[in-house]
Amino acid sequence: MAFNLTRRKFLQTASLAAAAVPLSKVVSAETGITKAPLDAMGTHGDQTVVGGICEMCFWRCQLVGKVRDGRLMKLEGNPKSIDNGAAICARGNAGVKLLYDPDRLKYPLKNVGKRGAPTWKRISWQEALDTCGDKLNQVVDKYGAHGISVFPHGASAKYPMHYFERTVGTHNVSEASFFQCRGVRDTAYIATTGKAPGEKVDMPNTKVMFFIGTHIGENVHVSHVKQYIQGLQNGAKLIVADPRFSASAAKADIWVQIKPGTDTAYMLAIMNYLVQNDKYDHDFIENHSYGFEEFSEAIKEWTLEKAAAECDIPAAQIKEVADLLAANAPNVAIHPGRHVTWHGNDFQRQRALACLTGLLGAYYVKGGWVPAKGPKVKGFSWKNHDHGTDYNLNYNQEEEALRHPYAPPGTPSELIRDCAISGKPYPIKGCVVWGQNPMQTIPNQEKMKQVFMQMDFVMCVDIMPTDATLWADILLPEASYLERYDYIKKGTQWNLAETHQQYIAPRMPLVDPMFERKDQVYITNELAKRMGHASEIPVKSLEEMTEKSLASAGLSIAQIKAEDGIHIQPGKDPYSMPEDFEVQLYNDDLADAGFPGAPTYIAVPDVPKGFARLLYGRAPVHTFNRSQNNVWLHNAMPVNPVWVNNEVAGKLGLMDGDTVSVVNSEGVASGTTTTVKVTPGIRKDCVYMYHGYGSTNPALSVGKDQGIDDQKLITILTADPESGCSGMRNNFVKLVKNGKVLDMPA
Amino acid sequence: MQYGMIIDLERCVGCHACTIACKAEWEVPVVNSRNWVNRLGPSMTPEGLASTYYPGLCNHCEKPPCVDECPADPVDMTFTDAKSGATKTMSVSATWKDPFDGTVQIDKERCLGCGACADACPYGARFVNPDLADDNSMGKADKCTYCKPRVDAGFEPACVQTCIAGARIFGDLDDPSSEVSKYVKNGAKGIEPTGGHLGPNSRYYGNKRDMSLLFSSSTPALADLGSAKRRAMLATMVKPAMNKARDIGLLGLAGTMLVKKMNEDE
User: Fold this and answer.
1) A510 by DSSP, 3-state: which?
2) What range does the record give for the signal peptide (chain A) (predicted)?
3) Residues of B in contact with A90 (CB under 8 A)
4) Contact B250 A6 (CB under 8 A)
5) Is B164 within 8 Å of A225 when comparing Cβ atoms?
6) Which end of chain B offers a freer environment for a tag, N or C, measured as fewer CB atoms within 10 Å?
7) CA distance A254 to chain B (A)
8) Residue A740: is it exposed, middle or buried by C-beta count within 10 angstroms (0-12/13-18/19+)?
9) What is the set of domains in chain A, with CATH numbers?
10) Residue span of the structural domain in which B20 resides
11) What is the pLDDT of residues A384-421, one digit of tens each?
């Protein structure tokens, strides 16, 4: 098992004999024999290789590699970076252990056993690609292009996703980063301000930060953490609404211990208070908003007292927060959040955040929402084609309207899964999983299993085995982010108060791929050749793609290398509002489509007696389950303790550190166990755990069965009506100790 | 000069970057650590509900109890001041406190791997590194060096360089104008063991509730030196035999590797 590998044994097993202590170095001195030095050398003398762009998460910090004898010893932030600088997080540092993970996929594999319980046989790339081409062709011939569904994630999945979506022509693409994460944030803000908000709040230069559930510190993106810490150091006040005393709540001036699901009511009360007490930004509202009167009328029922009762927080605290925001407006950072697919009422909450920002006049001003002006670099991918609406599952043919008109790009996951399982309105019989792990991103695993089981063909492309790759017929090993050209990271200096600069940093390989790993352009192009699309291939290699993209900005790979991996150029002042910028406090289009025109609170189901609501969030050392097998990260946090309120624990006889399993209200059991964390830092009506544990793939020798998979316990499905995004926090659980199911006291 | 490190808990977000960078930099075995981050709370303190971190590492103490317990035969060692070039010769066992920069260091070549020093450290900052086992020992004592090889070469300690929040500050505590000294003036405190006066030079700065939680949860007791001394004595007793066996042992090591290499080649 990889966990027990010593350094020297590891070096040997990683087929890097050159880096193991060579026999020649053991010989010298008086006896003719001496040892290699006992002290590790440190990496400061090693060769520095530039051009790394991290993808341990999707923030993509700029890296350099420290390379010794062809082996990557360490990753560091690129000192030239004006984003993350020389700093990278735990996951970034642990990229070395992903690169050399002995459990990594090495060769093309064919499943000669069952889906879900595979027996793998190593095959050649030729056979693997021929099989994938044949099987996908059969699906297209028999059912049409829409018979293929695609579940992509990450930089490497973009090129194949475009191929299947644009060239092959299926609408049935579901990105977890949209439908189970931030898609609803973006479409709600677009419906309000015309712009996807990112997390572009000017925290270093703000007076107040306002977080709804955002838990920076446990959610780690380096330059974002830098902005947040700089804001705190500069004296900004921090307001955190969270049922749990999160890493951010621990640094907050005001912790709003809000009842889960009621955030919109909370913000409506803040906004109503600002309107009723004339504490909003008149100038902004007059010049840059639409529908103030309808909006004010729609939210006027939300008195402080009404929200206090709904949200289970003191009315005085709502007033305190509203007054603090008003007193510091417009220099307030209303954070748009990131993973926001919580309850299936999320479009409205995100609309409320966008409107609150508007009432405070906090767009394009110091400390507010400010989209930094980055450089332009053109992407090169498959050409767009219009594939009509005939097979778009999100298009209601009878009503000639979209079912979820505010869906992010792609097709809502549930529409794809329902169609695949029912065969209506058409069969979906081919499945391409590329970098995503839909078993642990999309709620309800039994449903995902049914989707896989009814397929004629399933192919997965990944760097590691995951719980999804168990379901593949053909499994292809991909080069990692450290071994390929790829994504071009661009942006500005992390602190907008500093000299305005822009950077362009293409991903370039730090080391060569080992074994038979291939990159996405090779694999996709080979599929395209076998599927009759050879003439449409846009680039022959990732290197060519990178070179072409850089050329659009007047740059080249050679120049970037000469510039130590990052091109820096003068930037632009972002603090000026476009003249036509408008906040739609009331949105006519929404109203016409049958949705509330003004932000509206939609209550979520209450916690049934005897249960607690299951909440989850980010572990600072993991990026979901995808990093669970990393020995360094695993060792930092081996399990995900379940947070239980101390009074609740007292009644249940639970002690800190007890081992428990979890069962949900639909009878689905966690299967694995974790420990209990007893704390006053969580409400009594919920329990909490880090997401990204409890993987079941036996090929994960470190991560398998460690901690509990929160995703397995999310079986009650809710879809946000406007966007079709998943609601993932409407599930209820009990803890099980020593085989005894414990009734959770309210 | 006395090197020291400040951990600013107002900045620290508990991300563990420091611990993983250290593992990479110094090839620390997975299950061992030269530094660590313990997550504390949320717990009630007299100052209110608190949640913070204990990013721990060797304290490079004023009076390091580990140094006194080393049973290795003392030898004369000449130390050089990296800045002035001044030298000083001292008789030291396999671990010592550097007379110029104040760091506590280990000579792994002479370390017996007995673990007495690890037993003597109340903070658990030392461990016996099993990857460094040789014919004389089950491993060698290992710990944070304040990244001395990096620092002497003009680099920051690896944990400081990678800290995403700027929460780790390294410098000379004897220099009143240094950042670390300013932090000490503002109240940064080392964690003294109960009843001990070791003079820890890794120090913590934070608000009242975080400091209350850190010190109430993470103040160790002084180590039981009895066990350290017993361990050191045992090591001393077998030492002459080990020295004799050394050359033979090394031949054995080389032979083992040769056989292994041949097996792999097959």
Assistant:
1) coil
2) 1-29
3) 15-17, 19-20
4) no
5) yes
6) C
7) 12
8) exposed
9) 1-40 (no CATH), 41-103+481-573 (2.20.25.90), 106-175+410-439+446-464+471-477 (3.40.50.740), 181-373 (3.40.228.10), 612-742 (2.40.40.20)
10) 3-225
11) 999 999 999 999 999 999 999 999 999 999 999 999 99
